[in-house]
Design a protein that fits this description.
The chain is α/β, with parallel strands linked by helices. It is built from nine helices and nine strands. The strands form two sheets. Strands 3-2-1-7-8-9 form a six-stranded parallel sheet, with helices on both faces. A three-stranded antiparallel sheet has the order 5-4-6. A hairpin with a 5-residue loop joins strand 4 and strand 5. The radius of gyration is 18 Å and the shape is elongated.
Length: 233
């Protein structure tokens, strides 16, 4: 999947930005929600159950949905996470991810090199006093010991994503942008490429083409194979 031209882009880049989505974690056993048969392809759609409205009015339904469908604590990073992490450790890359599964951190990516655009489902807190709660406690109940509702620190429908301004600054500084494992239809995440300088190459590694007005070199295939072949100096 990787030719000399693509490899040279990675070899020469000093400020790579990876934009990652659910397809990065499928090789770790976490479903790609928006693909056929995924969470967003079911009769009961999650937009309401993952909304501020549900949190306010039917938190028990939200809790049940999240616990049933969205936690994969045994999942481990795969070769995509590992190669990206290696580049961040060389101080040649940063990652902006839609994923809330925490696998980039498990692979060793520093918080200074990672923007979790939609939060992290293992980051939990009580909604009134904002006290941190661990995952095992949340597994047992959505109500804390002091009687407060617990929620994951993720972007719900009706909320603004995390660290938008920081993400824009990262994009503006990029000398190579690599989109991996995302259908690129969710905004404002998909709009981040609007901030890339005009001469900066953009590529996408996905199972399917993404639709965009930007010039993107699109590599269609298995991202795991791509990152297995990718050589890091």
């Amino acid at each position: 999947m990787i030719n000399d031209t693509v490899q040279s882009l990675f070899d020469n880049a000093k400020k790579i930005v990876f934009l990652t989505g659910a397809g990065v974690s499928t090789a770790s056993g976490i479903p790609d929600y928006r693909s056929k048969g995924g969470l967003y392809d079911q009769k009961v759609r999650p937009e309401y159950l993952l909304s501020t409205e549900a949190l306010a009015n039917e938190p028990a339904k939200m809790y049940q949905f999240i616990m049933t469908n969205m936690y994969y604590p045994e999942a481990k990073p795969n070769v995509i996470h590992e190669k990206m992490a290696a580049l961040t450790k060389q101080k040649r890359a940063k990652i902006i991810t839609q994923n809330i599964d925490g696998l980039h951190q498990k692979a060793g990516v520093s918080p200074t090199d990672l923007i979790e655009f939609h939060g992290n489902i293992y980051d939990l807190y009580t909604i009134k006093s904002h006290q941190k709660v661990d995952y095992k406690t949340y597994q047992q109940s959505m109500i804390s010991q002091n009687g407060e509702l617990i929620r994951p620190n993720i972007t719900l429908y009706g909320e603004i994503p995390f660290m938008v301004e920081s993400a824009i600054k990262v994009m503006q500084a990029a000398d190579l942008v690599v989109i991996v494992g995302t259908s690129f239809v969710v905004y404002p995440f998909a709009g981040l490429i609007d901030y890339v300088k005009g001469d900066v190459p953009i590529m996408a590694i996905n199972q399917e083409y993404i639709t965009t007005t930007h010039h993107i070199e699109q590599i269609i295939g298995d991202a795991s194979q791509f990152f297995t072949e990718l050589k890091i100096k």
